Amino acid sequence: MSGISEWPRRRFALAIALVLWAPAGRALTFDEALNIAETRASEIRARQNTVTAARAARVAAGELPDPKLVMGVDNLPVQGSEAWNTTRDAMTMQRIGVMQEITDGDKRNAARRLAEANIARAGAELEIERLSVKRQTLLAWLKVYFLQQQRFLLDQLDAENRLLSTAVTTRLASGHGRGSESLLSRQEAMALEDRRDDLERDLGKARADLARWVGTVASEPLTGAPPAYPTRPEHLRHSLDRHPDLAIFNVQEASASAEVALAEAAKKSDWGVEMDYQHRGPAFGDMVSVQLTFDLPIFTRTRQNPQIAARQQDLERVRAERESMVRQHTAELEAMLAEQAALTRQIERIDREWLPLGQQKVDLALAGYRAGQEPLPAVIDARRFLIDTRMKRIDLEARRTAVEASLHYLSEEVQP
Description:
Order of helices and strands: HHHHEEHHHHEEHH
CATH superfamily of the largest domain: Outer membrane efflux proteins (OEP)
Shape: elongated
Structural class: alpha+beta
Number of domains: 2
Strand order of the largest sheet: 1-2-3-4
Number of strands: 4
Number of helices: 10
């Protein structure tokens, strides 16, 4: 019976040993999981393609349109003896030339600004996607890790059950026990098996979620300790503007401002130049012509002004959405900080009070059982309380680590 009371004291040491035991070639650390996820995530590749496309589009932004080749016949007679003849009339000319449209400089600059803003936006969205993949991978890794810890605890409890079953059998053989005690021992073992089935189900789901990001290596045992992210509330509050969901509004605002400038530049006139060489019949000399064309934006009230107003409303929309997002993330930050503080207090209380109390209950129940003063149900109830407390501690630690990881990504800076 002494083995039963000594075993719980070695639980955490054994759990750590089991975690570290996994072979190096068949274990997955969270750093490796993040690297694998970032390499294979199709979401990141899609965003990278968007960045490449935006950079390619920037090359042509603000450039003049292609020149145009002009060919034709001027003043061709259609009546009389010279009808459809291109060489007999002095006014008939075969024309070839080139025309170039010149876009207003402000329009070209606005187009360049918009292209640069699109590159910055695509880059920011790429970084946001990368952070999202890392965060979701880490949360999936943590879920598997802590479920794995609970499975290690159940393994230890199985060993304890075998010791308890041996002790009960010994008491029955010596004539000091009751037949029902053997049934209670078996009942407790079956209850633990039910808990193991539930745990294996949850672990399978968690590994499936992790496999979404890291592939088949999700089936490997996890090794190493979870990442530690110290929580600094004031720092988090002051760095909230760097959160990906807020940082994206900076580039969205730059893009919307460029759209406004492009719409305003549409009020300015473009112009074009055309140069033609005109060939006439052998009896007449050839000619050259130069022609200038200008746009006349005189209907701004129904054309340019509505477009400018629409783009300005888009800009105001981006600013309003940013303000709304700031409020939302401020509320989320305060909620997570409150949850992290509460979880920390509960874990400290379990370590300081509940676990020592549970162990004392087990020790007293075992001592009373050995002395014939306590029935076996008292031992089983005391063990069940200690089991539930240890399971609860792992669950609380898992929740706190997930909250701290989320808080860490709240202050992660986006660098497009």
